[in-house]
């Protein structure tokens, strides 16, 4: 809770069906990738762009960073308020590419074939960013080291851990969890958890 928040203001920041946590729970499907040689890591930007871009770990880490503050909400019903991140703004990465006009959606690709979808406008929001540090510490492998997407206005499964690719598309299509019953959009304040809700 920030110094300016009253108990009611803090309550208003917690979506329906969520419980406040002081911890940072670890939830994911499959095994955690551990990187032994960062020269083999890159971030691929492809799809509806005028040319494909591959940023090496060294190139990505050299991009300008800034601080971001937000609340995060997991589909499994926990919320964590007042997170402080260090990361790279989406606008900074987008300076590397030129989108084709038909681009309307994004697929985020992560290790082990994991993926999740976003409308382009949500990806381009000023509040969406590439997270590198959380509360002053580098992300742990369990939380997405070296880079995770952070999309705080949607349920946290949309904030892909272990990010490796950004694909721009002309129409929406489901990612891994969306193919397995999760909502295509995932607004926590509308409780868009599952497609059968």
UniProtKB/TrEMBL annotation:
This is Sulfite oxidase-like oxidoreductase. Residues 30-177 form the Oxidoreductase molybdopterin-binding domain. InterPro entries: OxRdtase_Mopterin-bd_dom (IPR000572), OxRdtase_Mopterin-bd_sf (IPR036374). It holds the Pfam family Oxidored_molyb. Gene3D superfamilies: Oxidoreductase, molybdopterin-binding domain. It comes from Paenibacillus athensensis. SUPFAM superfamilies: Oxidoreductase molybdopterin-binding domain.
């Amino acid at each position: 809770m920030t110094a300016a928040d009253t108990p009611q203001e803090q309550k208003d920041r917690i979506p329906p069906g969520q419980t406040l946590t002081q911890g940072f729970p670890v939830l994911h499907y499959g095994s955690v990738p551990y990187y032994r040689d960062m020269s083999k890591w890159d971030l691929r930007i492809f799809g509806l762009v005028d040319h494909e871009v591959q940023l090496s770990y060294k190139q990505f880490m050299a991009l300008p960073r800034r601080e971001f503050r937000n609340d995060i909400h997991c589909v499994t019903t926990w919320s964590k308020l007042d997170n402080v991140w260090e990361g790279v703004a989406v606008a900074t990465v987008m300076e590397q590419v030129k989108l084709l006009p038909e681009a309307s959606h994004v697929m985020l690709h992560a290790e082990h074939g994991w993926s999740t979808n976003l409308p382009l406008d949500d990806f381009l929001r000023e509040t969406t960013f590439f997270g590198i540090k959380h509360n002053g510490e580098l992300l742990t492998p369990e939380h997405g080291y070296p880079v995770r997407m952070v999309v705080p206005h949607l349920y946290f499964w949309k904030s892909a851990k272990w990010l490796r690719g950004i694909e721009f598309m002309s129409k929406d299509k489901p990612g891994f969890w969306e193919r397995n019953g999760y909502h295509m959009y995932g607004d926590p304040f509308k409780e868009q958890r599952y497609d059968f809700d």
